[in-house]
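Page 37, continued from 36.
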């Protein structure tokens, strides 16, 4: 297991006065995974969902759905879903209900969708999905319909009444399993299938389907994701390769195949803006900060072989459901820091006040906020250095925000290229219990630096 460094990397951002910037580190050693509370009896966690501030985890080999009301510190088994061996899919519906897609006992045709309206106290079976032995995927469309991807006939079932009635949509020719369903921003619905690695598209809400372009070499499409630019990404097996399409599936480009991976099981964009890819059988999670040009592994998820699902919860943390250990891990990176400079009155007239606003979030361990520093160097060589010392303890899950106001005296030499540099905050993780003497470059780590060119 890799241990997170006690120091954050140095980040330098150049902006004009009045702008806001943010930055976060992306190196492997800045990211750690922590095992959450015990899911007693679970060997695999296939699905994660959040509803009403509670987390839910669908598992195997007994089809249990677990609930956590404290963001993973502890888990309670809500129920064994009747005749279920695996709970492969979870969906928090817009109707307030939670839906679970399951597999029945081996050799049975008992793929079902269960529903609870009380947070898992009682689960009820919805109508029969005729011929289905596994429900791999559940997706709610923007119009309110819900789709279920199944095997062994590669059927997609459709309901508009919370599962009181299910109908089979149009044929996905050649498909035997539908592992993932995505509604794109334009309303087109995509389905990733096996055993030929095809992606199908539907423009009528899933009632009829047509195969898209070829993902050469793919056997199974386990996950589909659309980024903010409209590109659709597809994670596949048994080759562990990642594809993308910039033309809504007409053509697919091979992006990369991850070393040691046989399956890309989930694709997820976290609140740090990075795209994450979970894999098996080595239990790695990779991420990219440059639109897939390069990928780096995050730190190890100890004992995990398959990372089946990723979820960003409302507390801002990234969670991973794994097998064959049946654990849910919580990931943590460095704090996300944003800085804002505001010049008042916003012209070269002096004196004026410089207001510095600092916000820290994504805090999953305790940090100490040490100080802020302002440097003004004029074209004629006049310099001002000012420190704002402070000591604030930030606990996990909290957000830190503060402002410093620095009065700049009237000077006669503010002409030419006058550089104003603000080192917003210096932070260090626990165990500091008293504020150290903070001087330039001393002990604390610079988290965010902003440089503005004064008018």
């Amino acid at each position: 297991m890799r241990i997170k460094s006690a120091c954050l990397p140095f980040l330098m951002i150049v902006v004009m006065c009045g702008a806001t910037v943010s930055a976060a580190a992306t190196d492997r050693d800045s990211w750690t995974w922590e095992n959450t509370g015990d899911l007693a009896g679970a060997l695999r966690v296939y699905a994660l969902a959040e509803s009403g501030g509670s987390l839910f985890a669908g598992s195997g080999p007994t089809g249990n759905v677990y609930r956590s009301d404290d963001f993973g510190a502890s888990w309670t088994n809500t129920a064994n879903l009747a005749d279920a061996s695996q709970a492969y899919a979870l969906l928090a519906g817009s109707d307030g209900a939670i839906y679970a897609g399951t597999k029945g006992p081996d050799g049975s045709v008992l793929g079902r969708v269960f529903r609870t309206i009380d947070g898992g106290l009682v689960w009820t079976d919805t109508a029969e999905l005729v011929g289905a032995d596994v429900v791999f995927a559940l997706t709610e469309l923007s119009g309110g319909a819900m789709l279920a991807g199944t095997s062994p006939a590669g059927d997609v079932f459709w309901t508009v009444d919370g599962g009181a009635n299910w109908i089979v949509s149009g044929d996905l020719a050649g498909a035997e399993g539908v592992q993932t369903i995505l509604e794109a921003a334009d309303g087109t619905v995509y389905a990733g299938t096996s055993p030929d690695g095809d992606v199908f598209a539907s423009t009528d809400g899933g009632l009829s389907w047509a195969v898209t372009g070829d993902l050469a070499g793919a056997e199974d499409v386990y996950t589909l994701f659309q980024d903010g630019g409209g590109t659709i990404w597809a994670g596949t097996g048994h080759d562990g390769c990642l594809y993308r399409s910039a033309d809504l599936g007409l053509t697919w480009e091979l992006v990369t195949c991850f070393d040691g991976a046989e399956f890309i099981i989930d694709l997820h964009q976290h609140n740090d803006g990075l795209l994450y890819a979970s894999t098996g059988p080595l239990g790695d999670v990779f991420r990219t900060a440059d639109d897939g040009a390069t990928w780096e592994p995050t730190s190890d998820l100890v004992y995990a072989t398959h990372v089946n699902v990723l979820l960003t919860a409302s507390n801002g943390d990234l969670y991973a459901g794994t097998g064959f250990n049946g654990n849910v891990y919580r990931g943590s990176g460095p704090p996300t820091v944003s800085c804002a400079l505001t010049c008042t009155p916003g012209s070269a007239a002096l004196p004026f006040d410089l207001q510095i606003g600092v916000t820290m979030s994504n805090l999953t361990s305790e940090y100490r906020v040490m100080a802020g520093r302002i440097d003004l160097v004029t074209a004629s060589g006049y310099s001002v250095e000012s420190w704002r010392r402070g000591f604030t303890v930030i606990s996990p899950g909290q957000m830190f925000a503060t402002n410093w106001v620095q009065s700049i005296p009237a000077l006669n030499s503010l002409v030419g290229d006058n550089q104003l540099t603000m080192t917003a905050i210096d932070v260090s993780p626990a165990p500091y219990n008293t504020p150290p003497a903070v001087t330039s470059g001393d002990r604390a780590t610079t988290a965010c630096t902003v440089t503005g060119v004064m008018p």
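Residues 12-24+336-453 form a domain with the Immunoglobulin-like fold (CATH 2.60.40). Flag for discussion at group meeting. The chain has a mean pLDDT of 76.
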